[in-house]
Request: fold
Amino acid sequence: MAKIIISGGSGLVGSNLSKKLQINGHEVFWLSRTPAKMQNAAYYWDPEKAEIDLACLDGTSAIIHLAGAGVADHKWTAAYKQTILQSRILGSQLLVRTLANNPHSIKIFIGASAVGIYGNQTPPLCKEEDELGNTFLAQVCKDWEKENAAIKELGIRLCTVRIGIVLSSKGGFLKEIGNLANYGLAAPLGNGKMQTPWIHEDDLANLFIHLLENGNCAGVYNGVAPNCVSNAAITKMIAKALHRPFFLPAVPAFVLKIMMGEMAGMLLANQDIAADKIQASGFTFEFTGAEQAIENLIGKGHQQ
Ligand SMILES: NC(=O)c1ccc[n+]([C@@H]2O[C@H](COP(=O)([O-])OP(=O)(O)OC[C@H]3O[C@@H](n4cnc5c(N)ncnc54)[C@H](OP(=O)(O)O)[C@@H]3O)[C@@H](O)[C@H]2O)c1
Reply:
């Protein structure tokens, strides 16, 4: 059993991961800006104020760094773009400084990143060593990974997970499209042919645990299921699983660009991402087909 701290553990990815870690016998604590609001055990930190409760290091052997302002929570104004970037970078810098300047027993650090790092148009089955993109999100991920790289200089094992679209019964993409589908408004975006890299929330949690528990794993891993699907196909699968119609014409790319500005690029991205490296490390996905994953999560949502 290990004591693990998760920055941003209160979020979509962190809360499901916390449950799985606890089931596996680990002791989980979150780093949060508002620990008093948390039911789970949490330590205070505030990357913007460069403040952290050093008690979080007592007996801790792993850090999972997920925290950052939501990329789809607001329109990408210049100020919000700065928040998206700084909320991640300042957190990494604070963690690196804290570990460099204080006694600790941290053996592994896992940093979140995103497949957005490859840009909006990837080669087929884009791998971890492929060229990185130049979009705003690509730059955010590159800067974030660069800050986390300083962890290696402290002699700590570093893993990075470039996460795809997380399918969850509690929020995110599936919930948003599901809400539209419930009103009969689910429609493909652009030409609908863009490849969508997705991952079931439980597979993502298990992937983090795999990296944590396998000392041979280090470096960057794509956190996506082996089979990407087109935007039109995944939207149709969600509507079908909810027993809702799917007949609307696609939302044209130019309409999205007028409505959402630069953020539309993220929605229209064509990203065909490979899961080969994590599979070669011995990880087995439970959900390899998007339809099976969606049906499982929609069933789970009905039970909650
Ligand atoms: N969900 C996805 O589909 C997806 C895909 C690719 C990559 N990712 C990345 O994976 C990470 C976790 O995703 P998630 O969906 O769990 O995110 P989330 O639900 O938005 O949660 C992120 C957590 O970060 C903390 N946070 C929010 N704003 C912050 C700020 N300005 N400064 C410092 N901390 C802040 C919050 O914790 P407190 O309020 O407790 O401090 C929040 O619970 C994120 O970095 C995200 O970009 C997610």
